[in-house]
């Protein structure tokens, strides 16, 4: 069980983004082959690829959070000592967390509205709440990753991580 948890913690976003990219590539390759070699276009390929792209985009937010890849003022933060940097990052992570906690209910309502309406995609008949769940799932995962980053910085401020 611990191996599974470690794998999920270390590789979940990378796996989902890579799987989405591979699926998008295969689906569009089949579409190109069908269109130009067989002379028959697939009606569903572009729609599925678009939805995979949406999911990959939202999952990438969590990946960037986990890897601390974001727009930030590195030169400003670099002038602080180690604990000062950690305090600055704690404040930054707290603001990010508050922002995503604010967004989660809106994302849930957005997904719920598609569920209630029964809307389906035009070509595949996929329930749209599957697609519109991407922001909700992403914001939950991002919040979890921010809490992880916050805890690491908190340990640094307390002196529990290497000075």
From TrEMBL:
The chain crosses the membrane at residues 12-33, 48-65, 86-108, 128-147. Pfam families: DctQ (PF04290). It is a multi-pass membrane protein. The keyword Cell inner membrane applies. Residues 24-153 form the Tripartite ATP-independent periplasmic transporters DctQ component domain. It is found in: Cell inner membrane. Keywords: Cell inner membrane, Cell membrane, Membrane, Transmembrane, Transmembrane helix, Transport. InterPro entries: DctQ, TRAP_DctQ. PANTHER family: 2,3-DIKETO-L-GULONATE TRAP TRANSPORTER SMALL PERMEASE PROTEIN YIAM. Belongs to the TRAP transporter small permease family. This is TRAP transporter small permease. It comes from Bariatricus massiliensis.
């Amino acid at each position: 069980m611990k191996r599974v948890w470690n794998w999920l913690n270390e590789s979940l976003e990378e796996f989902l983004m890579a799987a989405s990219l591979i699926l998008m590539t295969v689906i569009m390759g089949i579409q190109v082959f069908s269109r130009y070699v067989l002379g028959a276009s697939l009606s569903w390929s572009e729609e599925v690829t678009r939805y995979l792209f949406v999911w990959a985009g939202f999952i990438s937010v969590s990946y960037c959070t986990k890897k601390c890849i974001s727009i930030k003022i590195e030169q400003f933060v670099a002038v602080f000592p180690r604990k000062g940097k950690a305090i600055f990052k704690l404040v930054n992570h707290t603001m990010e967390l508050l922002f995503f906690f604010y967004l989660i209910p809106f994302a849930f309502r957005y997904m719920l509205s598609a569920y209630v309406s029964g809307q389906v995609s035009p070509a595949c008949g996929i329930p749209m709440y599957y697609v519109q769940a991407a922001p909700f799932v992403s914001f939950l995962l991002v919040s979890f990753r921010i809490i992880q980053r916050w805890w690491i910085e908190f340990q640094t401020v307390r002196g529990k991580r290497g000075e």
